[in-house]
Amino acid sequence: MDEAKKPIRLPESEEGAVLFNVPFPRDLKALKGMAPIITKSHYEIDYIHSYGQDSPFFAGLANGKLLGTRCAGCPYTYGTPRLHCMYCGGECDWFELPREGIVHTFTVCHYGSQEFLPETPFVLILVEWPGVDTMFLSRLVGVDSAAASLEWVGMKVRSQFKRLSRLKPTDVYFVPA
Ligand SMILES: [Zn+2]
Questions:
Q1: Ligand 1 center to 82 CA (angstroms)
Q2: Rounded distance, CA 69 to CA 90, Å?
Q3: 75-98: per-residue pLDDT in tens?
Q4: How much is the pLDDT for 19?
Q5: Which pTM was predicted?
């Protein structure tokens, strides 16, 4: 065939949703009752996120320090970053939490989000410190998750920090003290 007379067509691929024989009514009035079509496609973005007033918490992690906050207006103390008190609304100040705390409770995770899936099963703990009114959720490593037992409740644990900070809450984890 003469090159100039060939029909013009874009290249096609079999990536993504490839459907054949999608039901379609002869009477177009029936289209109004059609169920929505749902497709799946891969989506990837760079997400720029501000830690805002929690930024000092992450700067602390990058420097091997776990920071809590203490209300200036009432005696409440937080084991997490919180710049305003949930009780009195007063402003909080930063302080460094002790390296050692105790396991308040734990759970063994056999399933997780995509990032943590390769590490399952892993152990999550709530760490408590004497005199601190809220707890901190973190990982407990260096224990056998298959040997999980209630004996772990009350166990002394010690914070450890990743040398290469990712500026994420997972920069800190705990090991038996
Ligand atoms: Zn307060």
A1: 11
A2: 12
A3: 999 999 999 999 999 999 999 999
A4: 76
A5: 0.76
Question: Looking up tokens 């993504």, which residue turns up?
Answer: 16
Cα 97 to averaged position of ligand 1 atoms, centre (Å): 18
Query: Could you give the CA distance from residue 175 to residue 158 in angstroms, rounded to a whole number?
Result: 5
DSSP letters of the chain?
--GGGSPP-------S----S----SSGGGGGGPPPP--------------GGGHHHHHHHHTT--EEEEESSSS-EESS--SB-TTT--BEEEEEPPSEEEEEEEEEES---TTTGGG-SEEEEEEE-TT-SS-EEEEE-SS-GGG--GGGTT-EEEEEE-SS--SSGGGEEEEE-
CA separation for the pair 158, 62 (Å, rounded): 17
Length of the chain: 177
* Residue type at position 158: R
Distance 30 CA to ligand 1 centre (A): 62
pLDDT tens digits along 8-31 = 998 887 777 777 888 889 999 999
